[in-house]
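User: Could you check the structure of this?
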Amino acid sequence: MMNSKSQKYQKRRFITLTKRTLTIFVFLAFLGIASGQTSNKDKSKASKSKDSITKSKISPIKIEKTGTISDTVKKINPMFDQQEVGIDSLFLGTGKFKLYKKNAHASYYHDKFHNKKTASGKKYDKNKFSAAHKKLPFGTIIKVTNEANGKAVIVEVTDRGPFVRSREIDLSRKAFMAITSNKSSGKMNVTMEVLQK
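Assistant: Sure, the predicted structure tokens are below.
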């Protein structure tokens, strides 16, 4: 009699455990399917955005001479002499730099011109890489190399000037400070190379 009760109890317990296990298994399977669908949606969104980024990616450029390039350009691979333009930076396209002038006197804009309109219509930003030149067309890309230390920056002509006779180019404060040896000096001798497209 006792054996039969014990067997019934064990049978009921086995059935209860089986039902619980089956319920947990079904719940986990449902959860896995739901999360799989969510991750598939996320993956498809990610692949779509990745495709659009890939399509809009700017092609790399070659630069003849390497020097210290400012943060307007990002190195891809040090084995190759190539640069890639980063997002929110100066667009260079493709081409080679051609010597424009050696031993040119460079200075930089005074801070009072920050956020003022330039001759091209763009606002001057002392934290960007731009320059003023008397003759070169607006939008001209110039590689400016400090002859004393070999450091270089790439700037865009956005303004007219400098209006001091002995000076050839006015750089933005950031561009000037990136290549100068003496931060307290307001001028330096540079080599200017213009990007040929």
